[in-house]
Write a structure and sequence with these properties.
This protein is mostly helical. The chain is built from nine helices and no strands.
């Protein structure tokens, strides 16, 4: 019974994620999510207390999935940390310049929108970004230790700096509809992470 509950809940989250990634949170009505998932309104409220509760669950799930995806890159054994980090940023650039909606980052898509709408959803995004930055910092600390990154690199501060750079570059990419900001972010990242 629990497995079936989780399957239906996951199905509703998956159906809504694709639509919200394309239109934003406020741009999507509950009925559109229900139609896409093929579930009645009463069933929705069995799984989520409200649309905002759905949004929180969507963001929590997105963060967990995202951290699992990036762990395959940042946690790759036998690969120098600098190479792992540059692969991560290259993948980010690829995802953000892709035409595929399902590859777009929900943090980039929803941060400005939901931060003013829902404190609960804002906290989910804030927690998610904090966890990603912490994971990047751990990889940077590995790089300082393995000599693939500059010895004087401050992992926590550098991880936050680069994350901010890439969020900004992702937003500019959406505005410009070309990857020039991501290309510039990749060049700056490469320079920051190259030992002298």
């Amino acid at each position: 019974m629990r497995a079936q509950y989780e399957d239906v809940r996951s199905h509703i989250l998956d159906a809504g994620r694709r639509i919200i990634a394309a239109k934003g949170f406020e741009g999507v009505g509950l009925n559109e999510i229900l139609r896409a998932a093929g579930v009645p309104k009463g069933s929705f409220y069995h799984y989520f207390p409200s649309k905002e509760g759905y949004g929180r669950a969507l963001l929590d799930r997105y963060v967990e999935t995202y951290l699992e995806r990036i762990e395959t890159v940042l946690g790759a054994e036998g690969v120098p940390a600098r190479d792992r980090l540059m692969r991560f940023w290259s993948i980010w650039a690829s995802w953000q310049s892709s035409e595929r909606i399902d590859e777009k980052c929900l943090v980039v898509k929803l941060s400005a929108e939901v931060a003013d709408l829902s404190d609960d959803m804002r906290r989910a995004l804030e927690d998610g970004t904090r966890r990603v930055i912490q994971r990047l910092a751990r990889c940077m600390a590995d790089g300082v230790a393995d000599g693939s990154l500059p010895a004087d690199l401050a992992p926590a501060a550098s991880a936050e700096r680069l994350y901010m750079l890439w969020l900004g570059a992702s937003l500019l990419t959406k505005l410009r509809r070309n990857p020039s900001a991501l290309d510039a972010a990749l060049a700056e990242t490469r320079a920051l992470l190259t030992p002298i």
